[in-house]
Specification:
Number of helices: 10
Structural class: alpha+beta
Strand content: 15-25%
Strand order of the largest sheet: 6-1-3-2-10
Number of strands: 11
Helix content: 25-40%
Largest sheet: 5 strands, antiparallel
Order of helices and strands: EHHEEEEHHEHEEEHEHEHHH
Shape: globular
Oligomer: single chain
Distance between the termini: 20 Å
């Protein structure tokens, strides 16, 4: 992978996790795992576009994992992503600022829209999940690599086996199987041997199921085009500096694209507003709301058309990625 695939740029490991209540869909319909992987790619591309202000094509190695530390069913995704991507002009722009909270919110909306589009989840339930303080969706991107050998080590970790034989033991007096998990294997769970066999075999992929996928600059189609053109895949025209982040417009841009409502547009005069300050003291916020005599409806789900539009976006497939 280091010699024939990875580009000589910094990479991030980005881990996408879905709520427990949604994992049941992917346990009995394993083909949905591929769709889950594509929704995560779309969320990542949308995040890159929002941060850079233009569409970027990163290199992504995606691994679908179905197991947790206790060999339990825990579908999640591990991405090895280049810190940035190539624009339409062929210049590589660095994007080293990863906001896990913002990316998780985008990922949540795209996944829920996909499930609503497949009629596995109602729009009301999707809106209810989004209204929760902790939706269960999470993104982790703190693991960063600066060299190819470091990225290769992360890639090997991403494709690790379901269990470790060093953590497995047979408790002969009890006739049960023990498995150590957690940090340094400090915790242990015992189970019947039939349950152990059931857990392990539940992670065997279906026939023809692909668990390692390549997108963007690492996609087979893109690499084939590069080889056909006689170009070196390792030579990138790096843009000077890094993509300039505009935090005051990033969140507004996402709201505008998802809800089709401009939060910076004054509802009275139609002029453009700008952020003066962020108030985080909830007591001060309550006093302002009471003074303005504002009323809100708790747990109001987003409009159903939002889910239809994002589901359509998630259903469209671009040849260069998929």
């Amino acid at each position: 992978m280091r010699e024939t695939l990875l580009l000589d740029v910094s990479h991030r490991q980005v881990v996408f996790v879905i709520p427990k209540m949604l994992r049941i869909f992917f346990k009995f319909k394993r083909k949905l795992l591929g769709d889950l992987c594509r929704t995560a790619v779309r969320a990542l591309l949308f995040y890159f576009q929002t941060m850079a202000g233009t569409a970027l094509e990163p290199g992504i190695v995606a691994v679908i994992q179905t197991f947790g530390d206790r060999i339990n069913f825990h579908p999640h995704l591990h991405f090895l992503v280049t810190e940035g991507g190539v624009d339409e002009a062929g210049a590589f722009h660095r994007v080293s600022d990863f906001d896990d909270g913002r990316l998780a919110r985008v990922f949540a909306r795209v996944v829920l829209a996909f499930l609503v589009g497949r009629e596995l989840l109602s729009p009301e339930w999707a809106g209810r999940i989004l209204s929760w303080r902790h939706t269960g969706f999470s993104v982790h991107s703190r693991v960063r690599t600066k060299t190819k050998p470091e990225a290769e080590r992360v890639g090997k970790y991403m494709i690790r086996p379901v269990l470790s034989l060093e953590r497995l033991s047979f408790l002969e007096p009890e006739g049960k199987v023990g498995y150590r998990y957690g940090q340094d294997g400090a915790e242990r769970e015992t189970m019947d041997y039939l349950e152990f066999i059931g857990r392990v075999t539940s992670h065997i992929p279906d026939k023809g199921q692909v668990t390692v996928r390549y997108y963007g600059l690492y996609a087979n189609a893109h690499r084939g085009k590069v080889r056909k053109a006689g170009m070196s895949p390792f030579l990138l025209r790096l843009a000077e500096g890094e993509v300039q982040r505009i935090p005051s417009k990033g969140w507004a841009e996402m709201i505008r694209k998802v809800y089709e409502v401009d939060p910076m547009l004054c509802p009275k005069c139609g002029g453009t507003m700008k952020v003066v300050a962020f108030i985080t003291d909830y007591q001060a916020v309550d006093r302002i709301i009471d003074h303005l005599k504002l009323r809100f409806i708790a747990e109001k789900p987003p409009p159903s058309r939002v889910f239809a539009e994002v589901a359509l976006m998630a259903a469209e497939e671009r040849d260069e990625y998929f």
